[in-house]
């Protein structure tokens, strides 16, 4: 993110067909759309918003209140009670018991279902393990659980859609390689009152023996990242199949990126 002439800007990618939802979400957070670059499968959106300014009136008001408080204390010392202050002090222990020192407990972070809930610290997991992530994009605060199952080999038909996963602009036809696999991806929304929008959820694979020769495969239930719904409601989960064709899937590693550059990525492997 860079600051230019009093504005801060950010660039996000949205899947084709989800641009309006993405723009509405960013505008709700105070961003203004300034540019869009349409690709075949993704659109790059550029937003900006004014940098926050310091609230000078509030600072001045606080200084005035401090001045009044200090002045009042000084006047109290100068013109306070004229009572005799030469009498010996009473025994403090006899007059009253010492007051207990109370240390306020630090505020506890909200946790789903009243239990302790922490984000997954390690970004490297095994297939079938669950990653925990708190989405804070925009003004949201949504705890999520992400699970990716092991790769399952399948044979695509001639009707399958195959495109090059390494094409920077998206849409270039790809080739079927030695092995085609699908991954079962599940995202659970643990929030009780906020829906999660998976507009900025993307995937990739590595450890294929030839990572520069990878194709995305869409057919039937294997819908890929374009299959996410508009929203995952509070307390609900959504599962889809994500397909890749690679040279070798023996040591394949599947990476899921959530919330774009503002979020995190988790890698799953055997």
TrEMBL record:
Biological source species: Blastococcus saxobsidens
Report residue spans for region: Disordered.
88-118
> Keyword Transmembrane helix: yes or no?
yes
Q: Where is the composition biased (Low complexity)?
A: 88-103
Q: Which domain of life is it from?
A: Bacteria
Could you tell me the keywords of this UniProt record?
Membrane, Transmembrane, Transmembrane helix
Q: State the name under which the record lists this protein.
A: DUF4352 domain-containing protein
TM segment ranges: 58-79
